[in-house]
Specification:
heterodimer; A: 2 domains; 14 helices; B: mainly alpha; MetI-like fold; two-stranded antiparallel ribbon; 1% strand; globular
């Protein structure tokens, strides 16, 4: 009996120990960043390394706000771009999914095949021709270029189609009998039924845009339009501000909205991520 | 999707009449944007890849020369090799750990599972450039935490980011840190789909934990593992941000992946024909890999 108990505690104890060691390893980089954001430029690389800032300072955040282009400009750029990107993709791609799920029309099969094709090719690989298309359209180096190429989201349309096929047609029929227009049926009767799918898609898409790096790098050249991830790159390139404390402060502000969105909406997020993300 | 099967063919069921043209409202916005920004670029790249073009003036037809050039271009071949090495390394670190994390948080005896799961997953929502910045600091040669810890076990300061091999390892570690949570979620879903009876039956037969792992868990996860392998391969071949931030592709081009080489040739050097050929090669390769996912995913259930 006692041996069994000892074995039980040993097994349990080692399980918790292993899980905790990995927890510390996984969390450490972010904790290091967060602590570093409140250190002075000299303190970040103190030797031997010290986790906690002594004394903590907010000078990095103040510095960020006092740069020639203040930090809030980049933060706003990211916010505006993410907002329009998510709303646009949600609206347009869900309507496409709705049409595929609930109507029979000519070319719907072809369209579905084209959507599957788009899901197979990661968009990042097409950034060269997309850049040339954006140039032909005259939208290079504008915020529009960060938004409209991604509104027709093939994976989004596909997932909405799948989800919407599970919602009964009778809702649509009842709307028709009451004389509502097709668009109104979709907007007022049908879309509330697919709220969970909207939420899951929105939160995952938000994190993807917010973190987007390659396309803004390719398409933007004016600093005042930069989003947070590429602003971080300019900070690294800038020889006068290559200061890890400053970088950590900027990185913390970049990560915060995504991490908060994740923690707040975790269940939706994990469910959404396993199906939505194409990374 | 039971409803789909239950849905009657048109003509057999009477639908209440509606304005068929209103379908266009739902379809057109997507179709127009999709054709302009997804389909047209693919065709554009396909056509341009057969030409030489510097961004101005007429296209110069060169046939498949851009494609053959890529395979005889040392820098191009190196970038392809780098991508493969870095992808394999990332998966070799990330997939086993992701599997292990899934086993841990799926264990009945682990308290506060939610906390563990959340922390393991969080790096996935961190922007790649942020991950790169953090690990650049951790891998700093003189004052970095990693070398500090290694010094305690008697390992001399490693020139991370300065030597090709170490720089590659640094990139792999950074990428896997971000990706582990993602892999974990898939494996967790896989683990939860294994019927508990299997374990109970084997308990009665006196199987120990290791035997259960080898004879029940692993075989039952074959399909999920394949899926994870495909999806991480597709992700790993798009590698760009982490080496771009951490090493700029160096030292000695050892961390220049195909994506970076393609963008350098195209956007920086203006060799749009050549860059398009790389884009097409990469698209075709990744589309084939991703199509495997449909093939194996489709057979499930």
């Amino acid at each position: 009996m006692t041996i069994d108990r000892m074995r039980f505690y040993f097994k349990n104890g080692s399980l918790i120990l292993v899980a905790t060691i990995f927890l510390i390893l996984m969390a450490f980089p972010l904790v290091w960043m967060l602590a570093g954001a409140f250190k002075s430029g000299v303190q970040v690389f103190s030797f031997p390394p010290r986790l906690l800032p002594a004394p903590p300072t907010v000078e990095n955040f103040v510095d960020l706000l006092q740069r020639p282009i203040p930090f809030q400009v980049f933060f706003m750029n990211s916010t505006v771009v993410s907002l329009f990107h998510v709303l646009g993709a949600l609206f347009v791609s869900s309507m496409m999914g709705y049409a595929l799920a609930k109507y029979q029309f000519r070319f719907s099969k072809l369209l579905f095949v084209l959507i599957l094709l788009g899901m197979l090719i990661p968009i990042q690989v097409l950034f060269i021709p997309m850049f040339l298309v954006a140039r032909d359209l005259g939208i290079v180096n504008t915020r529009i270029a960060l938004v409209i190429p991604f509104i027709a989201h093939p994976l989004g349309a596909f997932l909405f189609r799948q989800y919407m096929m599970g919602v009964p047609d009778s809702i649509i029929e009842s709307g028709r009998i009451d004389g509502a227009s097709e668009f109104r049926i979709y907007l007022q009767l049908f879309s509330p039924m697919v709220g969970p799918a909207f939420a899951a898609f929105a939160v995952v898409d938000f994190v993807e845009v917010w973190n987007g790096f390659v396309w803004p790098l390719v398409v933007l050249s004016s600093q005042e339009l930069f989003t947070l991830p590429i602003f971080l790159h300019t900070l690294i390139e800038d020889p006068y501000s290559h200061n890890y404390a400053l970088l950590f402060a900027a990185a913390t502000m970049t990560v915060a909205p995504a991490v908060l969105a994740f923690i707040g909406l975790q269940r939706k997020f994990v469910a959404g991520f396993t199906i939505v993300s194409d990374k | 999707m039971g409803l789909f099967n239950a849905k009657l063919k048109p003509g057999r069921k009477k639908y209440y009449p509606y304005n068929r043209y209103s379908i266009l409202i739902f379809v057109l916005p997507f179709v127009i944007l999709y054709l302009v920004f997804r389909i047209w670029p693919i065709l554009y790249a396909g056509a341009l890849s057969l030409h030489e073009w510097q961004g101005l003036g007429p296209w110069n037809f060169v046939g498949f020369q851009n494609y053959t050039d890529f395979f005889s271009d040392p820098a191009g071949v190196l970038s392809a090799g780098n991508t493969i090495i870095l992808a394999i390394g990332e998966m070799a670190i990330g997939i086993p750990l992701g599997f292990m994390f899934a086993l841990l948080i799926n264990n009945r005896r682990l308290p506060m599972k939610g906390v563990f799961r959340t922390i393991y997953f969080i790096p996935r929502v961190v922007a790649l450039p942020v991950g790169a910045i953090i690990f650049m600091a951790l891998f700093q040669r003189q004052y970095g935490v990693v070398n500090y810890v290694l010094a305690h076990v008697g390992i001399e300061a490693i020139p991370w980011l300065r030597e090709p091999g170490w720089a590659r390892l640094a990139v792999m570690i950074t990428r896997s840190w971000i990706g582990i949570g993602f892999t974990m979620i898939y494996f967790t879903a896989g683990l939860q789909s294994i019927p508990v009876d299997f374990y109970e039956a084997s308990d009665i037969d006196g199987a120990n934990g290791l035997q259960q792992l080898i004879y029940i868990t692993l075989p039952m996860l074959r399909r999920v593992s394949l899926f994870v392998l495909i999806i991480t391969t597709v992700g790993a071949f798009q590698l760009f941000a982490v080496p771009y931030m951490m090493t700029g592709g160096g030292p000695r081009r050892a961390t220049t992946p195909v994506m970076m080489y393609m963008l350098n040739r195209g956007i920086s050097a203006g060799q749009y024909g050549y860059a398009s050929a790389i884009s097409i090669l990469l698209s075709a390769f990744l589309a084939v890999i991703a199509a495997l996912q449909f093939r194996f995913g489709g057979r499930e259930r």
